[in-house]
Write a structure and sequence with these properties.
The structure is a single chain. By secondary structure, this protein is of the alpha/beta class. The chain contains ten helices and ten strands. It has a six-stranded mixed β-sheet, with helices on both faces. A four-stranded antiparallel β-sheet has the order 2-1-4-5.
Length: about 250
């Protein structure tokens, strides 16, 4: 029964750029509806891990499964897999020459071949949900960083992914814009979305996570509930990391 409950699995994954392993024997399982937050020092492999899950980086060993099916290997059709594994990046990646609504509709129309009427109606519902309906005809240059990131989240959501990956989505934002993006992600969590999140926002991690995975040097150092991890980290390395943050 446990096998069928798992939406996403990494088994003994290794990623090597040639000058040493970035991910070492990495094994993680994510259940449907679970929010897993990856934290750790810069360069520990968090972003690389997400990029491997989405096929943006090749792995050198191990395997990755989605819905029980292996998605690593030369036969993988990543254009299909990425419809199920949505990803939101740190730097938005919106097309500057296209309006917000056209950025959002590109995937549903070109990749999923949905009708423009149906996709546009859903896009407007999602834009209203994140407070951006009035910006649907604006261009990215006319948006704040927080608005661009919310538009990028809608662009991923409209593909109806089974899991969402968020890679440091607030890192490039001014402090006052961080909250508006995190609030959207908290709402998704409340609605039961399956998510893997890389973040340095510790208060947010504690609020949104079902499980915290702490990485260092390409390895899982500690894995625990947010309550246990933040109040009583089991490893000295995690304690040192948390001591660099100030908690209210």
């Amino acid at each position: 029964m446990e096998q069928t409950a798992m939406l996403l699995e990494m088994h003994h994954v290794q990623k090597d750029y040639g000058n040493g392993a970035v991910l070492k024997d990495m094994s993680i399982k994510v259940e449907k509806g679970e929010v897993v937050v990856l934290i750790g020092p810069s360069g520990c492999g968090k972003s690389t891990l997400l990029r491997c899950l989405n096929g943006l980086e090749e792995i050198q060993a191990g395997e990755i499964r989605l819905d029980g099916n292996v998605i690593t290997g030369g036969q993988t059709r990543w254009s299909e897999v990425r419809q199920k594994i949505g990803m939101v990046f740190q730097n938005y990646d919106l097309f500057p020459h296209m309006t917000v609504i056209d950025n959002i509709l590109l995937g549903p129309l070109k990749v999923q071949k949905r009708t423009k009427k149906e996709a546009a109606e859903e896009a407007e519902i999602l834009l209203e949900r994140v407070g951006l309906l009035d910006k649907k005809d604006a261009y990215p240059r006319q948006l704040s960083g927080g608005q661009k990131q919310r538009a990028a989240i809608v662009r991923a959501l409209i593909m109806k992914p089974e899991i969402m990956l968020f890679d440091e989505v607030t890192a490039a934002l001014d402090p006052e814009m961080v909250r508006e993006v995190l609030d959207v992600m908290l709402e998704l969590a409340k609605e039961g979305a399956t998510m893997m999140i890389v973040t340095h926002e510790m208060q947010f991690a504690r609020a949104v996570a079902d499980r915290i995975i702490f990485l260092d040097s390409g390895e899982i150092v500690e894995e625990n509930s947010p309550q246990e991890f933040f109040s009583q980290p089991r490893t000295e390395r995690a304690q040192r990391f948390l001591n660099t943050f100030t908690f209210q």
